[in-house]
Amino acid sequence: NTNLQDINSCSIESSDGFEVVIFKLDSKEIYKIYKAKMIDELESEMKRAASMLDFERAMELRDAIFELQCE
After folding, report:
1. Which residues are CB-contacts of 8 (< 8 A; sequence separation ≥ 6)?
2. 26 pLDDT higher than 90
């Protein structure tokens, strides 16, 4: 999970008095968030495959997870 303190942001006040916060993410931060989400989804799919006794698919997913974690 990404800590909001790690993300650059700025805030402006709109004409109606509301504060608007604008977050600036660079490509590395975006990839880090996307990668964590992909790993979570692959882990869920791996567990589902194992529970359905599809161990070959579970192993493929495990390997894909490992590759992502090693990047």
Report:
1. 23, 24, 25
2. no
Answer whether 48's CB lies under 8 Å from 70's CB. no
Q: Give, in order, the Cα–Cα distances in Å from 33 to each of 1, 27, 30, 58, 67.
A: 7, 10, 5, 23, 16
Could you give the CA distance from residue 54 to residue 47 in angstroms, rounded to a whole number? Answer: 10
pTM above the 0.70 mark? no
